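To the structural biology subgroup,

Please find below the input and predicted structure for IQ motif containing F6, which we are adding to the shared reference set this quarter. The sequence is reproduced verbatim from the submission form. If anyone notices a discrepancy with their own records, reply to this email rather than editing the shared folder directly, so we keep one authoritative version.
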Amino acid sequence: MATQNLEKAAIKIQSWWRGNLVRRTLLHAALGAWVIQCWWRSMQAKMLEQRRRLALRLYTCQEWAVVKVQAQVRMWQARRRFLQARQAACVIQSHWRWHASQTRGLIRGRYEVRASRLELDIEILMA
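Predicted structure (tokenized):
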């Protein structure tokens, strides 16, 4: 009977010890899994941040390209308007000169620029 009690006590102690070993092993495994999960989450966050930065960089490049194209188009439009206005001014000036020459007399002349001097020969005929 005493040996039976000793055996039962030994079995209880052994099962308690095996339970402690199993729980410790499971705790180590759970902690290892937790560390791996934390590392994986941090890697996913880094990859997400890299993708976000890349998308932002691409968006910025596209926006700058759009801005540059718009600036070029606006510059072309402004230049075209300027050239039209200049052409209109030249037409008005030539018509005005023609009109002035017809009403006030005829201005004939020629000029040459030589070195740093201007030679001017003007002949005015009054009608």
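Summary notes: Residues 23 and 29 are 10 Å apart (CA to CA). DSSP finds one helix and two strands in the chain.

Regards,
Lab coordination
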